[in-house]
Design brief:
The protein has 507 residues and is mainly beta. It has 2 helices and 39 strands. Strands 2-9-8-5-6 form a 5-stranded mixed beta sheet, with no helix packed on it.
């Protein structure tokens, strides 16, 4: 091992020496001595947060010395090329490398004599991407992320904007829709594959699988499939204990463990055309088949990672509406409770009589469901809803927005109540219930929360208000508000202890 290390060092120094190619004739000063001071033995920096600002003192016993400068970074155990990051005397460099130990090299050369000298130091790159609020926002046709750091409590302290662009020099095409999270996704690092935590950043024209540790994009829609679909129109991504489901252009694709999605699932053995809605019911920690809705046949269907076709969903018990061919249009479906059965709520509109709308309570065992309908009066405010959100595992309430107002509807008695009115000129962009109960670790207690998140947009900027609730009613003022450029589509809190059971993916 010692010999290997020595070879690596020699190889790296040869690479460094190559940066000082001599293309001229020089009159070398005998005994010239160059000294470099002001470079420490080690620097610790946080990727995409910290800058490395250094200006070493360079001296020579040549009174006419004219120095040129060079800065480079390399991985000492990779035998790769050295990345040149500057030719200036003073280095002012934003750290964009992934979390790892690097060697930073500073070199100078006296252009009058050709004499050069280098010094090296350790650059230890760490990350702060594993704790904070991630906000998905879109602007000018592209989606990026803002990260709000929470060093002391769940309330944000500082913000880093556009972390996808900073870390990858690219964004996701289209308008953001919904976050997805996976605890274990295969990510290649240094030629090896590790199962890392990732965020699925989903927009209506593209998607990125982002390694939370580094904010590097591991896959996009162009590399997520064995055969890339002709149309790139992702509408949903979710996962359960059996695998991951991706809806693209109305079709279902599934993935087991390899990180790549297979071909389009057939509707049945006759390959009947279908088009799945973006809404779904799924339990991250269960093998109960998830529930989807086919817009062409007006039918609830189920998914499977192991079969080439979708599963037919049958009626069960005292159901009040057929699961298949019910002549309805799905306006919304959200998760209400996990377990067996899987509980959810749907808002549907009749295709023959569009004025007829119903709220349907769903009890699903995967391929059998019980549907209980509540016809919505024509005077109900929910008929005008633009955005919806369910409360997971708590009050039997449906939240919805109309213009710049957020309302609640008690699903037990039909009572509707105004919960929040945004400022004049602001429009609601999304509503989401997020809850982090955390593991039984005292250090996580300052980060526990239970919020209704309300996103608004006005004049090219977003605000996300974090409201506590009591008996389904929002507090009069939010605990805090996050602000930034663009229009926000979703927000999610990430900590080192967030895992696959923390959030159940739903609208």
């Amino acid at each position: 091992m010692k010999l290997i290390h020595q070879c690596l060092v020699i190889g790296s120094m040869l690479l460094i020496s190559a940066c000082y190619k001599d293309h001229g004739n020089y009159s070398y000063a005998e005994g010239e001595k160059i000294t470099i001071e002001g470079v420490d033995a080690m620097y610790d920096r946080v990727a995409l947060v910290d800058r490395l600002s250094l200006k070493p003192t360079v001296r020579s016993n040549d009174p006419n010395a004219a120095f040129s400068y060079w800065w480079g970074i390399y991985e000492p155990d990779a035998m790769g090329k050295i990345d040149t990051i500057s030719h200036e005397h003073q280095l002012d460099y934003l750290i964009t490398q992934r979390s790892k130990e690097y060697t930073l090299v500073f070199g100078v050369k006296n252009e009058n004599t050709g004499v050069g000298k280098t010094v090296s130091t350790v650059l230890n790159v760490t990350t702060q991407f594993t704790r904070g609020w991630y906000v998905m926002k879109h602007k000018d046709g592209f989606t990026d992320l803002d990260l709000f750091f929470t060093p002391q409590s769940i309330a944000p302290a500082t913000k880093l904007e556009n972390v996808l662009m900073l870390g990858n020099n690219q964004k996701v095409e289209g308008q953001g829709t919904l976050f997805g999270f996976a605890q274990s996704y295969p990510v290649e690092t240094d030629g090896q594959v590790f199962n890392n935590k990732v965020l699925f950043v989903q927009a209506d024209k593209g998607m990125a699988v982002v390694d939370i540790n580094t904010m590097k994009i591991a896959n996009t829609m162009n590399s997520l499939f064995y055969e890339t679909p002709a149309a790139i129109r992702p509408s949903a991504i979710c996962n359960d204990m059996s695998g991951t489901y991706l809806l693209n252009d109305g079709a279902m694709h599934t993935m087991l463990y390899e990180g790549i999605f297979g071909s389009k699932k057939m509707r049945d053995n006759k390959n009947t055309p279908y088009r799945l809605s973006r809404y779904f019911l799924i339990d991250n920690n269960s093998y109960i088949s998830p529930l989807f809705f086919d817009e062409l046949s007006s039918s609830f269907v189920s998914g499977s990672t192991y079969t080439p076709t979708l599963k037919v969903v049958n009626d069960y018990g005292a159901t009040q509406m057929p699961a298949s061919k019910n002549n309805k249009e799905l306006l919304f479906m959200g998760l209400k409770a996990v377990g067996s059965p899987l509980a959810g709520t749907a808002v549907l509109r009749d295709k023959t009589d569009p004025a007829l709308r119903i709220i349907t309570n769903i009890s699903s065992y995967g391929t059998i469901v019980t549907l209980k309908n509540d016809t919505i009066p024509v005077t109900a405010k929910v008929n005008l809803a633009e955005h919806y959100a369910m409360i997971m595992g708590e009050e039997n309430m449906l939240y919805f927005s109309v213009g710049n107002e957020v309302w609640s509807r008690n699903l037990s008695n039909g009572t509707e109540q105004l919960q929040y009115a945004a400022a004049a000129g602001e429009q609601i962009s999304f509503i989401r219930h997020r809850k982090y109960a955390g593991p039984a670790i005292p250090s996580e207690q300052p980060f526990y929360y239970n919020y209704m998140l309300i996103g608004t947009t006005a004049n090219g900027r977003y605000k996300i208000h974090a409201f506590k609730k009591s008996s389904g009613n929002l507090a009069s003022t939010p605990d805090f508000t996050m602000e930034g450029e663009g229009a926000a589509a979703d927000a999610i809190y990430i900590s080192p202890l967030v895992n696959g059971s923390t959030y159940c993916n739903t609208y």
